[in-house]
Amino acid sequence: MNKLSQRVLDLLRSEPFRTYKAKEIQRLLNLPQNKYQGLRTTLRELVRSGHIVKLKKNHYGCGQKTNEIVGELRVNSQGYGFVSREKGDDVFVSMKNMGQALHKDKVRVRLFATTSGKSVEGQIVEVLERARETIVGTFRWGRKYGYVVPDDLKIQRDIIVAAGDDLGAREGQKVVCKIEEWEHYGLTPSGRVIEILGFPDEAGVDIQSLVHRHEISSTFPDAVLQQAESIAGDLTEELDRRLDLRGDIIYTIDPEDAKDFDDAMSLDKLENGNWRLGVHIADVSFYIPEKSALDREALKRGTSVYLVDRVIPMLPERLSNELCSLAEAKDKLTFSVLMTLSPQGKLLAYDIKESVIRSVKRFNYVQAQRILDGGEKSLYAEKLQDMYELSQVLIKRRRNRGSIDFDTIEVEIPLNDNGEPIAIRRRDRLATHRLVEEFMLLANETVAKHIGIVLKEKTGQELPFIYRIHESPDKQSVLELVQMAHAFGIDVAPPTKITPRFFQTIADDFQQHPASGVLQDQLLRTMMKAQYSPTNVGHFGLAYRYYTHFTSPIRRYPDLMVHRLLKKYAHKEMDSSLLSYQDIEKICIKSTENEIRAQNAERDSIKLKQLQYLEDHVNEWFDGIIVRIVNFGFFVQLPAFQVDGLVHITSLDDDYYIVDEKKYRLYGASSGKEFKLGAQIKVKLIRVDRNENLIDFVISD
Fold this sequence. Notes:
The chain is about 30% helix and about 25% strand. It is α+β, with helices and mostly antiparallel strands.
């Protein structure tokens, strides 16, 4: 069964009570018009094979029992779970009805009959797709056999490990195990240990456990490493056919500890007052043949992962840190976007060329900022100042178009040699960060418009491509955001049309409010998640009609694919050798999933070290801000550490407290005492639990 057939089946099975017309299926699957006939052919084949049924008025429905649905299981740490579906309420599944399913598995659920007003409940009858291949946990010895207690509290089954399948693991060590057999729900699953990570207090074991929990590979297969090492570094034959920019003043600006430099910049003032901006990106696609071992591994990983104590690269170091990295004073192959801009920042002309550069200087962000501020001398101080001024023009131009700036707070956590955190501090966002970011945004937009507008007009067809899209928020979420703004005294009218400019305005209003952190967080929650797609719907947050990711091919697979597609189109390879829409879509889905996985791992690694740092501060008092009200208490954020903890309602023993959802507060029934969202409060840290990922506070009497 091909990919499109499976997508149609998944859609119909997710809502077995609904039927759809072909046009509605096309819209829900985000298929372009040129794929509509292929969809109709697929529908006919699925009807013929009995997988779906065709009903009156050309409506299609699933052929499965109407009391069954397909969805993803989300397990609560208390043992019960819910199966999500695209439309309709989630289906409740008790522990006894969970069968052999685990957290995040794709499952088929048989629905129970319900009475009006009751929540939908069901029983899992089949596991369609496992979410994980391995489980990380603590090895324990029983009387006759060993067993692994999973770290993830949402996996509530221990795994039995028979003698000889334990790799010699010792009591209390962290291990990675694989389930080999699970005959029946009533029986305990059995498996084998495939890797011993070490004891929990050993340096790096906590992060390595986290890496395995997210199923991120920290080593490369031998075939991949062998291919990387076999790549020749001699560029003699390649240099003659490329645009030679080695005489230009081109340099990189990156984090101080970076080794994979995949973008460089140049800027020249032209005689007519215009600017010539060059964005030069490492040509990774030159070194990685399609469908090779290196390519398959890069697709599988999707992105480099930046954890608190390490980087897990998408590509082996031979490529990421050596051949591709735009190191100072070395000839490097690049893909350059050369843009002519007016003094007002308007794009007047551009060219996209395979090139070769030689970076004259490797700056880090802090060093470049010191030069801009006059605190350090440099031969390139004037060039940096010109870049800064142009970046400010571009920022203003983008904001005038309605683009939203989300200045989220990031933390950095330095560690000692034992992997223990020695501080938690806010990461500064410098003008040099914004400078580089602005030039990369412009290059990404220019490449996307080149494909989506210029080449479309030249060829008369929409060419397969990877866009970075960001859909507009749904109306209900926006109304809830407006309601919260009113509760905080901010006068915002519900928009007649949801536009980026509305969010830009409300973000500026939030920035001036004493509870700006809480309001900005809610603003981010309102937005949709950006993703990769072959169907261009624009980028809402940036207010771009066309946008892609082109500038980071060392660490992002979609950028590598964008380079390949650009080369094919430049060489007029527009025949069957190109990837199909379905192929591109598959890459987009995989890349989006990998991005989310990496973001979750990065976030979890920071939280882990935040908790570890606070373990030495139990019973101390802190200034905090109430950031969330729930029916069992409220969460308080410590601004100094950017970490949240719970004040449980049972610790508020001076009154009976009630949640007032409309006013975002918890108030005492007798005293009228209130705890309101955004309020400042003093709390005492009473518990930190790294295993459960929890922090508990109490308030002063």
